[in-house]
Amino acid sequence: MTTTEARNGVPTVPVEPPDDTRLPDVTPLTARRSVLTWLSGTWLVLIAALAVLAPVLPLASYTIPIGSPHTAPDFGSLSTVLGTDGLGRSMLSRLVYGARVSLVVGAAACLIAFVAGTVLGMLAGYFGRWFDGVVVLSSDVMLAFPGLVLLLALASIYGPSVRTLVVGMGVMGVPQFLRLARAHTLAWSSREFVRAAKGLGASDARILVREILPNVLPPLASYLPIVLSHVVVAEGSLSFLGLGIPAPRPSWGGMINAAKDSIADQPFLVFVPATAIFLTVFALNQIGDGLRNRFDKSVGH
């Protein structure tokens, strides 16, 4: 501590000489990534790769028996790693081709719900008035109607098929994206840059596409894995009830349905597809939570 010279007989307050070597305290930014998120992403990449490469993998046909029924897992060949089902078909082959069904149906249904819900939600939130009231009322009616009952009705009327599942699940997921897109559109429509664009004479279409849509897409995209997990569960439920993908094409829910009578003697026939559904749904939820947390952090900064 030093003291400067007195001025008019009054000593100045002791001051500390500046220390140029002292650095400000800055909290280091550490990217903490959850181990579960990495493992979930690895599982989803593995399942997607197996589903895409299924035709070129050295797997037996999922329709032709390769051995005795209810054979225990055998590491002698790739097709018998998970054993055989009640008809002697490769469980691994049916599991891989069943993943193709779940992923294709889920991705197509989510795409329909995402596009339709985003468009309707943005239009309702931006224009408001009677259009907003009609859209919100319609979404409330759709949310009040049990989704599984709707899927069962469609499958009973039009027959079990990939198209029926995709359309039914896509329509069932529209209200969720619609409400989310509408809420974010209402929030961004009152921002200063949107008002400035209106003041400069920008059209409504340009404002929606260029100003609001880029800000609405991140939260909607972070919600996609959550909806996809619901679709996977719904597809498995319908296939378990016999109203999903028709035989002989395999699906995880259909595999559980075919093996439900043998669960006491051959539990692995049920646990293998059930474990695949559990891990896929768990991984999708973890990825969705990770994307949501990352989006929230980006907004905070």
* Residues in β-strands, percent: under 5%
Report the radius of gyration as a whole number of Å: 28 Å
Uncertain parts: 1-6, 26-31, 297-301
- Helices, by number, come to 9
Binned, the helix content reads 55-70%
Mean pLDDT: 80
Order of helices and strands: HHHHHHHHH
Q: Report the end-to-end length measured between terminal Cα atoms.
A: 40 Å
Main β sheet profile:
none
The 3D shape can be described as elongated
Class from helix and strand fractions = mainly alpha
Q: Please provide the count of β strands.
A: 0
Structure description:
The protein has helices at residues 35-52, 91-127, 129-144, 147-158, 162-189, 192-199, 204-240, 252-259, 268-300. By secondary structure, it is mainly alpha-helical. Helix 1 (35-52) crosses helix 2. The protein is elongated. The two termini are 40 Å apart.
Offer a concise description of the structure.
With 301 residues, the chain is an all-alpha fold. The protein has helices at residues 35-52, 91-127, 129-144, 147-158, 162-189, 192-199, 204-240, 252-259, 268-300.
